[in-house]
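Can't paste images in this forum, so I'm doing it all in text. The chain is below; anyone willing to post the predicted structure tokens underneath?
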Amino acid sequence: MEVDLKLVITLAGMAVSVIGAAAVARQQIKVLIDQIQDQEQRMRAADVRSDQLENLVTVQSQRVDVLSKMNAPDVLARRNRELSKFETLIEILQVEVAQLRAMHNGKHK
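Text version of the structure:
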């Protein structure tokens, strides 16, 4: 087998092509890895925001539940009955105090 200058130049050209392609591939892989890391960071930030919003929705839902229970018809009816009893008791006590004042005449010696 004879090795001539033409064969050496061809092999050298192929080697340079392979090395150049490897360098380009390495650079593209590095760019792709950087893009993947950037997307991963964005996804994690989105997950954090999503978790915060989910917690906020849960808290708001609990608050609405508490308010709806406070304003439930049966609770309001019970409170109204209690208030009515208090108002009636106050009226009775006012009458009694007025009677005691009338009996005493408001004069001290």
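The radius of gyration is 45 Å. Residues 46 and 52 are 10 Å apart (CA to CA).
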